[in-house]
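Please check this.
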Amino acid sequence: MSERQETFFDSKPGVKTIRETKEEREKENLSPFAQQSAESRGRLKPEDQCTVRTIYERDVGRIIYSLPFRRLRHKTQVFFNPQNDHVCTRMEHVLYVSYLAEVIGSALNLNTPLIRAIAMGHDLGHAPFGHSGERVLNELIQQYGGEFTFQHELHSLRVVDLLADNKEKAGLNLSFEVRDGIVSHCGEQYGEYILRPDREKTEEDLLQTKAGKSMPATLEACVVRLCDRIAYVGRDIEDAERSNLLSFAELPQDLRASLGENNSDIVNTLVQDVIINSGDEDAICLSPELGAALKKLTEINVTRIYNSTKVRRFEREAENIIEGLFEHFLKLTRTMPQDRYDENSQKFFEFYSQHKEFYASPVRKIVDYIAGMTDSYARRVFSAIYQL
């Protein structure tokens, strides 16, 4: 919504704005454990409030209109170089997470715009080629001095705080609660089925986040964290079936009996279980039985899908592409830009010279550049550079 449109809705003196009416409605209807929009810890750079949208509704808009969000449709979930157009991308994944988390949040009377903003922004920092790209970038960083580590959660925070543009300003200037939910969304502990918010978290804690070990500050972010797993565990089996890696019929009978026979059944079972077990609690919970079942199913996916020969073969391709791009760009930083450079090198120099952190190291700038690429763009640039 433009400033001109917001002015149209300006209230008269003494009359509540639409936003204030929404915030009052939240106080009346939301759970005592929910995050109230009016009680947000705010933004890094203070702004005037919108007269129509709550702080989290504004964050949703900033995320979904950003270029990093748009690029998710061409970034890998698990299977890159798919021959099937129905294989899941990051864009579909974040939409699934948002939908499931909002269903749970609505049932528990939580702040659904906050849930939506976290879900839509949680994977903005993923490198091309998914977790394979993340691993290779981190190895290259350590090889060239180990100045920092690459974690997609922390890089997602870096994207929304610095790299994405909002009205030609660096970063989207999102609220604390959305930024916290984004950076602490990753539950790498497969046995995690009770999530309690860490309401004492500080701004400094966000930059110290360790994947899977730092709990979110709000119940809404806990919902997104659990739904991240619920959304992908069955969906990845659907994609694995298309690649002849694993089918639902091959799952152990006890798992199919407890979770269901297909992705729809699995999602429905887990979502209902979360709602039943999280009512009147300052926690998001699965029952111990289904928590154990989800852990077992995730471990099967790791063995049969993520560590499969077919996926590993694609990982080697990703490794070659990212290493090739990194080495080429690093070599360019040691020379002076010249007109005779090819178009892809010129684009890199433009990003490099206009980087938001002027004094950042060459490695940091190169990683920011490569991490922002889509799978298809990384392939095209690599092929052009090495004339493949």
Notes: The longest strand covers residues 165-166. The CA atoms of residues 337 and 349 lie 7 Å apart.
